[in-house]
Amino acid sequence: MDSEKLREHLKKLVDTAGSTRKAASIIKAKFGYGPTHSAIYKAIKGSNTSDFVVSCYITALEEQQLGRRKMGKVVSVANQKGGVGKTTVLVNAGLHMASLGKKILFLDIDPQNNLVISLAPDLAEMSDFKKGSHPAHNINMFEWEGNEPFTPIPYEISENVHIIGTSKLSGNVTQNSIYNLADSLDLIKERYDYVFIDSPPSAGTLQHAALSIADALIIVSQPQKLSVKGVDDLMMTVRQVQRRMNPDLKLLGIVINQVKRPPSKTQTVHVDLLRAQYGSLVFNEHLYDTVRVTESMAEGMSMQEFSAKAAHDFGFSGFSDEFISRLEEGGNNV
Ligand SMILES: Nc1ncnc2c1ncn2[C@@H]1O[C@H](COP(=O)(O)OP(=O)(O)O)[C@@H](O)[C@H]1O
Ligand SMILES: [Mg+2]
Question: Where in this chain does the record put each AAA domain (predicted)?
């Protein structure tokens, strides 16, 4: 590329980054050395910056923007303990993205099927769904009839929100069928901006399935002993999955859910423990305890849709803003 083209290309990348300041911080994140924002401006204008330096800026910005585009398409939640708020967090994050105009697919792979019962009770009650023959039942993605991947037909909750449900039938899938699930999902995932996977509270095949097809993971924990232990166990699994099975998997962060206002002493101890152990991997914003959560889940609504007061008590907007910025930043290796 000649000098002028290089600078034009840099300008485009800086525009996409949003500002010369943002571009400077992206370059610093890659090289450890960050130009000032005016140095980037000068580089675009062509004064006193070598083509080599401009190319380095370009490399850093391209890498980040490519990662960002690739990033966060398939988001999963996890904790090996049940009842900590995985489904709650997933529903609120997903429906928030839908409210911003994004097209969302929820994929429920927890045989307890809380997600489908909450968001699509009509589907859960259909007799062909109960038998597993409905095209929006995920058992067919795990177990194809022939050698060709099964193409699921998601159930439309609304124009922007579709779901593939599950039931106890998926409880016995084998490790091999994880790849079937991935191939089947590949056939439809380009139709969506995001796929949100609800995963079961156990360290078995289904959790492996979720981790092996996700790009981004949110760990949900309550500030109490068993839930924190679940996080420790899971982090080890995530590291192994990143190394051996799915190098694209990134951890968005650990959300602490159901914090009381004010927190009890034990809650404070466990929040501090999580922060000491995992630092900036822990979301700055907590989610708080409120009875409205159970009510909103029963209605299949996010807390924001349910009521402004409930959303405020829950800490919805702090969480959802941080969720989006973590998604945009691209997540972490652990
Ligand atoms: N922040 C919260 N405040 C009050 N209740 C909550 C909160 N988060 C979750 N719950 C309730 O706790 C129960 C378990 O939550 P759920 O999201 O189903 O957990 P998991 O998916 O981890 O099993 C549900 O009844 C849910 O409504
Ligand atoms: Mg759940």
Answer: 73-250
- The CA distance from 181 to 176, in Å, is 10
Which residues partner with 196 through β-bridges? Answer: 75, 106
Residues 6+ apart with CB under 8 A from 171: 111, 206
Instruction: Compute how many other C-beta atoms are within 10 angstroms of the C-beta atom of residue 309.
Output: 11
- Among all bound ligands, the one having the nearest atom to the CA of 314 is 1
Q: Which CATH superfamily is domain 71-329 in?
A: P-loop containing nucleotide triphosphate hydrolases (3.40.50.300)
Q: Domain ranges in the chain? A: 3-68, 71-329
What's the CA-to-centroid distance between 294 and ligand 1, angstroms? 7
Distance CA 182, CA 179 (A): 5
Prediction pTM value: 0.82
What is the rounded CA–CA span in Å between residue 328 and residue 315?
A: 20
Give dist(CA 27, CA 174) in Å, integer.
44
Q: Whose CA is nearest to atom 11 of ligand 1?
A: 294
User: In this structure, what are the phi and psi dihedrals at residue 190, rounded to the nearest 5 degrees?
Assistant: -65, -15
Q: What is the pLDDT of residues 13-60, one digit of tens each?
A: 999 999 999 899 889 888 887 899 999 999 999 878 899 999 999 999
